[in-house]
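User: Let's play a game. I give you a shape written as tokens, and you guess the letters that built it. Ready? Here's round one.
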């Protein structure tokens, strides 16, 4: 088993939708019971798969050999089983152990002073509400006003990816996919959702693994 530290840095406002809404927000983001936002494991794994697909497409278009890259099916198990297991966690605003202690402290505060330390106020401190409407002939269309909550830029999320039965070819794919992953969430074509992903694979960063991979002739 191997564990790799992964950090996701938010570079521009991002909407990681929860699929929920209330009387004030039409499109809410994912957050825990205390109000702290997080980056869902399933969403990150899907983004990692999309990024890995892009890597293979770029290699194909560039005429590069993929012999030192593991087949994606072996890693992501989209249609078959494999001995390789990629375990992705939810990513939180602090590393796991620190986050557990942090949440315990906040649970105490919210239980002791519920009128002050509310989940809504916590969430508001990390986010802002964005409004949009549809124009018809230069005039806002009736009933088209819509709002969504966006996580502010500058926030980082932390987590550990666990790999079982992986070889260097698997590491090469993951390192390149993490390095290539640069956007998430809705409205990416509007400047939303720019991210930067960093990883430490047993003392080597994703960039160093990628550099070594290309130096050895891909």
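Assistant: Ready! My guess for every position:
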């Amino acid at each position: 088993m191997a564990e790799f530290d992964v950090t996701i840095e938010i570079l521009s406002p991002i909407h990681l939708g929860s699929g929920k809404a209330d009387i004030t927000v039409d499109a809410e983001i994912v957050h825990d019971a205390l109000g702290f936002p997080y980056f869902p494991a399933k969403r990150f794994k899907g983004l990692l798969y999309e990024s890995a697909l892009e890597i293979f497409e770029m290699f194909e278009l560039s005429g590069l050999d993929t012999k030192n890259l593991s087949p994606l099916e072996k890693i992501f198990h989209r249609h078959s089983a494999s001995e390789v297991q990629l375990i992705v966690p939810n990513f939180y605003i602090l590393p796991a152990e620190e986050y557990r202690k942090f949440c315990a402290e906040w649970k105490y505060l919210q239980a002791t002073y519920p009128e002050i330390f509310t989940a809504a106020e916590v969430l508001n401190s990390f986010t802002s509400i964005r409004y949009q409407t549809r124009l018809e002939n230069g005039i806002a269309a009736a009933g088209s006003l819509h709002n969504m909550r966006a996580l502010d830029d500058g926030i980082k999320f932390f987590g550990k990816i666990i790999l079982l039965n992986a070889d260097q070819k698997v590491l090469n794919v993951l390192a390149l996919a993490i390095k290539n992953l640069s956007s998430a969430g809705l409205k990416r074509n509007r400047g939303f959702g720019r991210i930067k992903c960093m990883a430490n694979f047993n003392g080597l960063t994703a960039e160093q693994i990628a550099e070594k991979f290309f130096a050895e002739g891909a």
